[in-house]
Amino acid sequence: MADQYYPDAELDLDLRWWAAANYLTVAQIYLRDNALLREPLRAEHIKPRLLGHWGTSPGLSAIYAVLNRHIRRTDADWLYVTGPGHGGPALVAATYLEGTYSQIYPQVSADAAGIGRLCRQFSSPGGVPSHVSVQTPGSIHEGGELGYALAHAAGAAFDRPDLLVACVIGDGEAETGPLSASWKLPAFLNARRDGAVLPILHLNGAKIAGPTVLGRSTDTDVAAYLSGQGWAPVFVEGDDPRLVFRALWAAVDSAHESITAIQRAARAGTASADTPRWPAIVLRTPKGWTGPHTVDGVLVEGTHRAHQVPLSAVRTNPAHLAQLERWMRSYRPDQLFDENGTLAAELAALAPAGDKRMGSTPYANGGRLRRALPVPPLERYALDVPAPGTTFHETTRVLGEMLRDIYAEGTRSDGGGDFRLFCPDETASNRLGAVFETTDRCWQLPVTDHDDGLGPDGRVMEVLSEHLCQGWLEGYLLAGGHGVFASYEAFAMVSVSMLIQHAKWLQHARTLPWREPVSSLNVLLTSTCWRNDHNGFSHQGPGMIDAAIPLSPEVVRIWLPPDSNTLLSIADHCLRSTDHVNLIVVDKQPHLQYLTLEEADRHCAAGASVWRWAGTEDDGAGRPDEPDVVLAAAGDVPTEEILAAAELLRVWVPYLRVRVVNIVDLMALMPQDVHPHGFTVAGFAELFTEDTDVVFAFHGYSRAVHQLLHGRPNADRFHVRGFNEQGTTTTPFDMVVLNRMSRYDLVLEALRRARRVPQRGDELARYCRGQLERHRDHVVAHLEDMPEVREWTWGSTAPAEPTTR
C-alpha cells in the first residue's frame, strides 16, 4: 500500500519539504540575519544567545510531512500534539511552510523578509518562546513540563467523533508518571462517540544528558509494555530518510484503517465484546537526525549531545561556523525557496487545504467550536433557607443535581455532548452522585453484575490519577468542551504544576486575538482539611489556594462558598465563564445554610458582604455604627466558627459593636490595581472600616490572606486564624481547636483586639478557656464533640452565665 500511494516522485517532494522544515528549524536556532544564506555565513549573522532544541525536531517534522500527505488523501481532521515541547522550532517551521503562520501573523510574510523575522523572533526578546507555545498555531499543548501530551490528546478526542489526534511522545517524556498513566486510555476511549488518538512514541535514544529507558529497551519489551496497556504497536526504525518515510507512511495509513474499522463497528453496533486494541506507532530515528554527525571528533548525532544546540561556539570558533554553514547548505535552501524567499510552488502545494491544515484546525482553537452550555435554572436546585444558620445540608449535593441535568440536557443522540465531570474515583464520595441518575462512569473494559454505575457509554470520567483527570479536562476544554475536575483538596496538589502551566497558557492566549476564548478550567476542591472524618493528617492540606494566588490575576479566581446556594451561584458563573482557572473550595459534609438563592446571587456578585443579621453594630435605630471589632470569614467551616463567636459576643457582651463580614471571592481582597476583582479603597473600607481590627477565620493557611492584603492600608490590623498544619483523624470541632480557629479562640482574639474593653469581657474569656479545656476531656471520653458545639445553630447559644463574685 505504501508503494501504491507513495510513488517516488511524491516521496521526493515530501523529502524536500522536510529539508525546508529542517532548514528553517536550524535557522531559527542560530540566525539573526542572512536567514536564506544569500551570502557567506559570518559570525555577525549568528544570534548572541543560542537557545532552542534541535535533537527532537527532525523527527517531529518528518511526522508532520507524512501526516500532511495522509490528510490530503483522506480529507480527515487531524490534530497534532507534540509531547517533546522543545521541538518548538520544528512546529513553527511546519506551520509557516503550510501558510498558517503568515495568515495569523502577517508580519511574518511568505518571503525573504518574513523568513528573516521568523528566525530573528525565535527565543529572542520580544519574540516567541522555544517551546510549542500558545503562540504556535495548531497547538493545544505547550510541552514545557513533560508528561501531559497523551492526556491532553485524549481530552481533545473525547466527544469529537471525527477527530484524529496524532500524539508524539518523546522517550524522555515517557519516563514521567503522568505519561506512564496516560497509556491506560483504551479503557476509557469510546469508539462510538469519541475521536481517536494515535500515539507515536518517538524513541531517539536520549534526553538532555543521557540515555532513556525505552530508548535502550528492546522492541520486544516496548511492544509488551504497550500491548499490556491495550495498544497494538507497529515499529518504524532507521536512519535512511527514504526508507523511514515509506515505512512511516504505511504505518499511519494502516493505523487510520484500523481506527476506521474499530469506529465503524462500534457505531454500527457490530463490535465484538472485546475491548479494541488501538494502533500505536513506535518510531526509532537518530536524535538530531541529518544534523552534525560529529563535532570536534566527538559523536553528536544519535546521542544526548544533539539535544539542544549541537554547535555551540559558532560565533567564536571559525571551524564551528564553517560546519554550521555546510550543515545548513546541505538542505539546499536555494532549491527550496525562490529568489523572493517564497517556498517553491510545488512544495507549498503539499499543504492540506484550509482548516484541514494542522496549524489551522479549529480543534486546536477550541473557542471556534465551543457552544453555550445548557445550564438549567438555579431555582430548580436552590435550598429553602427559612432563617440563616438554622438548617443543615450536604453542601455539594445540590451541585451534583445541577450537573446531572446538564448531562441530561446536553447529551447528543449518539451519547456524546459538550460536558464531562472528571474525578479520581470520588464522585459519590464528594456528594455529586446524582450525576449517575443520568449517566454512568465511563469504562470500556469488562463489566460485572456487581459493578455500580459503570458502562461503555458513561460520561463521568473516574480514574485514580489527578494528572489524568485534570489533563483530560484541559484537552477537552482546549478543543471546545466544558467540564469540572473534582478532587479531594489535599490531593489536587498532585497536579498543581499542571494547573500552573494551564494558567500560563490562558494568560498568553488572552493576548492573542486569533485565539478564541475557551471554557474555564473549573476545579472543585472538597473533602477539605477541616472535615476528613474517615482520614487523617495526610488528607489535610489547603495548599492549592497558595499555589493559585500568585498566578495571573487576569486568569485566576478563588471561590469559598459558605453554603449550598452560594455554591450554586458560583458554579453557574464558573461554568459560563471563559479563559479562567476557577478554584472552588467547599466541603461535602452537612453544613449550616445561611442565604437564600437571591441573597446568594447578590453576595457572590459583590464578592463579600456585611452580614448585618449576625452583627451588633446597629445603633438601635437600624443604622450601622462604627464597630469595635470586625469578625470576618472565608470558607464554610470558618463561617460557622465566626458566627458562633459572634453569637457568644452578642450574648455575653451585647453592647460591644461587632461587624460580621463574609468573603466568597478571595481575590477581591487584593487591591483593585492588582486584581480585576479587587475592592476599591472605598469598598474595602466599607466592609472592614479604615482602622478597626479584624479577626479573620480563613479556610487555608493564614499567610495566604496576609499575602492578598499586601498594599492595603493598615494591613497589620488583620489577625488571621487558619490551618496551621495541625491535624489527625478526629472530630470536626477538634480540628478547629487544634488549629486555634475555634469559636472560643476567635472570641478570645476579638476581646484582645476590640476597640473597647467590654464589661464581663474577663468572664467571657474565662468561659472560653474553660470550654477549650472541657472540649479536650470530652472528645477523649465520648469520641464526639460537645453537644453545644455539635448541635449549634444560629440563635441556640445559651444565655450568659450569671456573674459570680
TrEMBL record:
PROSITE patterns: PHOSPHOKETOLASE_1, PHOSPHOKETOLASE_2. Residues 588-794 form the Xylulose 5-phosphate/Fructose 6-phosphate phosphoketolase C-terminal domain. It comes from the Bacteria. Keywords: Lyase, Thiamine pyrophosphate. The keyword Membrane does not apply. It holds the Pfam family XFP_N. InterPro entries: THDP-binding, Transketo_C/PFOR_II, Xul5P/Fru6P_PKetolase, Xul5P/Fru6P_PKetolase_C, Xul5P/Fru6P_PKetolase_CS, Xul5P/Fru6P_PKetolase_N, Xul5P/Fru6P_PKetolase_ThDP_BS. Its cofactor is thiamine diphosphate. The keyword Heme does not apply. Residues 15-368 form the Xylulose 5-phosphate/Fructose 6-phosphate phosphoketolase N-terminal domain. Belongs to the XFP family. NCBIfam families: PRK05261.1-4. PANTHER family: PHOSPHOKETOLASE-RELATED (PTHR31273). This is Phosphoketolase family protein.
